[in-house]
Automatic annotation (TrEMBL):
Residues 96-148 are annotated as: Disordered. It comes from Actinotalea ferrariae CF5-4. The lineage of its organism: Bacteria, Bacillati, Actinomycetota, Actinomycetes, Micrococcales. This is Uncharacterized protein. Residues 138-148 have a biased composition (Basic residues).
Length: 148
């Protein structure tokens, strides 16, 4: 995330720009709030991006392939999915002026549409489940329903 060109400019124009990572600095880039994760956090090791503006809602998740190591990128512009992910992330951002450690996950997050999740992420298999688990499967399920 730190090597992405234009990220500081994007963060400067955002109402909230946060970077979640194990060992994240308090301000990894100018205008961006760093949120430090514990290694067992549901978000640890996940590669994701959520953008929400008045006219755009996009969520992207990159899942490494266990055999090739290549990333499979799953994207959604489904406002329901993007909004639920954004709500979860926002509630994990600590208040300004406090520690930059991630707040605890909510006890009862809004449940996504039920699907069978056949996507596993080998690098984070010892984590607790989180809102990004099943994201790729939910997208596939929604696509199959809209194609019918």
């Amino acid at each position: 995330m730190h090597g992405v060109p234009g990220l500081s400019e994007l963060a400067a124009g955002a109402g909230l720009a946060a970077s979640f990572a194990v060992g994240e600095a308090p301000e990894p880039r100018e205008g961006m709030r760093g949120v430090a994760l514990h290694t067992a956090d549901p978000l640890a090791g996940r590669r994701f991006l959520v953008l929400m503006t008045e006219s755009l809602a996009v969520a992207a998740l990159a899942v490494p392939d266990r055999t090739s190591g290549l990333l499979s990128v799953h994207m959604s512009q489904d406002p329901w999915i993007v909004d639920r992910i954004a709500q979860y992330l926002i509630c994990r951002v600590p208040p300004e002026g406090s520690s930059h450690r991630a707040l605890a996950p909510p006890q009862a997050p809004v449940a996504p549409p039920a699907v069978d999740d056949d996507v596993e992420d080998a690098e984070t298999s010892d984590r607790r489940p989180g809102p990004l688990d099943g994201f790729a499967a939910r997208l596939r399920k929604r696509r199959s329903h809209t194609a019918e």
